[in-house]
Design a protein that fits this description.
Elements lengths: L4 E2 L2 E6 L10 H15 L3 E5 L5 H10 L1 E4 L13 H5 L2 H4 L9 E6 L3 H11 L4 E6 L3 H4 L5 H5 L1 H13 L3 E5 L1 H11 L5 E4 L5 H4 L11 E6 L11 H14 L3 E6 L6 H9 L9 E3 L4 H10 L2 E4 L8 H9 L3 E4 L3 H6 L9 E2 L7 H18 L1 H16 L4 H10 L3
Parallel strand pairs: 2-3, 2-5, 3-4, 5-6, 6-7, 7-8, 9-10, 9-12, 10-11, 12-13, 13-14
Antiparallel strand pairs: 1-2
Helix pairs in contact: 11-16
Length: about 400
């Protein structure tokens, strides 16, 4: 696919609100794609609304140039996505010349990508990366979001209709948007490679009475979607059998802690303490995993599930919901499906919690055997180089 270039290199403008990976998911995929493009010779720019010193250093190390919005010193309003979507002419007045490709993320920056192409780079190729399935997630958030599924879906499909290429993260998203768009020729599946941090993580099992269960992700507003209510109920049963079990929840903002704590406690018959951990870096998460005996991802709906993949790559035992895109991916190989756990429908939460509790207790009781199995899974998964074919197809979009 031909497009404008700089010194023979494709110029790629990636649109996102952040560059760091603390919040996981979309931002981690965003950075991974940026690094992949740079590694093959592309000139890569990434928008941000704001960035920490660590983010700036990471981008520089990755060979990615960050683009910040302009803002008057006296304007102390927090940055917002509308700056990138509707105010890009004034907030980002000096975008790079010769942009050949614009990459947006559904539904965070997909509309911004479409508008920036139309208004500033009509000759550029528009690549839209899908991350969400509104019909799966909205009903677990609020009735208002559920009633808005039709409108949200229409907006997404409208953005995708104007894309030159659609890239879906994982088999579940690819299958969904293949049906919705009926697009095959310009639609491809992207499989993320776990970050080197997790691939290089070395976990070691030590026989102790203290056991650590780790969950990762925001609680407030998504407790049912992410299965935190199931974790709370299941941990009540686990602690009856393993009283020295510690539950650590990574991804709770300080300002959200009181409400998050109330949500979790409301789902327990008996009080089960948990340790709230704020959003952290991949290094923080790697350390969490080295101290954990099992990582949980029991989402009722999860388009992919990058945290679960990272835990597998780290070599720690993990349990992932059969309703996740990651489970779709793992289920293709009988040597990879060990982490999958059946999560019952929402009208049978107690049964789902009991199933999860039994699997957690089994892992904690079996100790070293579970870690040996997790090590074998890590070796098989990483040894397969499963991501290579999809990465090559992704690079072909940009002529690399």
């Amino acid at each position: 696919m031909e497009a404008q270039g700089f010194e023979g290199r494709p110029v790629v403008l990636l649109l996102n609100d952040e560059y760091g990976t603390k919040k996981g998911g979309i931002s981690t995929i965003h950075r991974g794609m940026a690094c992949l493009l740079v590694s093959k010779g592309a000139k890569v720019y990434s928008t941000v609304l704001e960035a920490t010193e660590e983010d700036v250093k990471d981008a520089k190390d990755d060979g990615v140039e960050l683009l910040f919005p302009t803002r008057p010193k006296e304007d102390d309003r927090p940055p917002e996505l509308r700056w990138l979507t509707f105010d890009h002419q004034t907030r980002y007045p000096e975008l790079p010349l010769n942009v050949g490709f614009i990459v947006g993320h559904v539904h965070i920056t997909s509309h911004a990508a479409r508008l920036i192409k139309k208004q500033r780079f009509p000759g550029a190729k528009l690549v839209q990366v899908t991350h969400v399935i509104p019909e799966d997630v909205a009903r677990f958030k609020s009735e208002e979001r559920e009633l808005g599924i039709e409108e949200e879906k229409a907006k997404i499909l409208d953005d995708l209709e104007h894309a030159d290429v659609i890239v879906s993260v994982g088999p579940r998203l690819y299958d969904y948007y293949k049906n919705e768009t009926r697009e095959e020729d310009h639609h491809l599946e992207f499989l993320p490679e776990p970050s080197a941090i997790f691939q290089n993580t070395q976990v070691k099992y030590v026989d102790t009475k203290t056991k650590v269960v780790l969950s990762v992700g925001r609680v407030k507003g998504v407790e049912r979607l992410k299965g935190y209510d199931l974790v709370a109920k299941s941990l009540g049963e686990v602690i009856k059998v393993r009283p020295n079990t510690k539950w650590r929840a990574r991804g709770i903002k300080r300002e959200d802690f009181p409400e998050s704590k109330a949500i979790i406690q409301a789902n327990k018959v008996e009080f089960v303490p948990f340790t709230p951990l704020q959003y952290g870096t991949q290094e923080d998460l790697s350390k969490d995993m080295r101290q954990a005996h099992v990582v949980l991802m029991p989402s009722r709906a999860e388009p992919f599930g990058l945290v679960g993949l990272e835990a597998i790559a780290a070599g720690v035992p993990v349990l992932v919901s059969h309703k996740s895109g990651l489970a779709w991916f793992l289920d293709q190989d009988p040597d990879w499906d060990r982490p999958i756990v059946e999560i019952a429908d929402e009208d049978d939460d107690d049964e789902a919690a009991k199933t999860l509790a039994k699997r957690i207790i089994k892992i904690l009781n079996n100790g070293s055997k579970e870690f040996e199995a997790a090590k074998r899974l890590k070796e098989r998964l990483l040894g397969s180089k499963y991501w290579v074919a999809s990465h090559n197809k992704f690079l072909e979009i940009f002529g690399l």
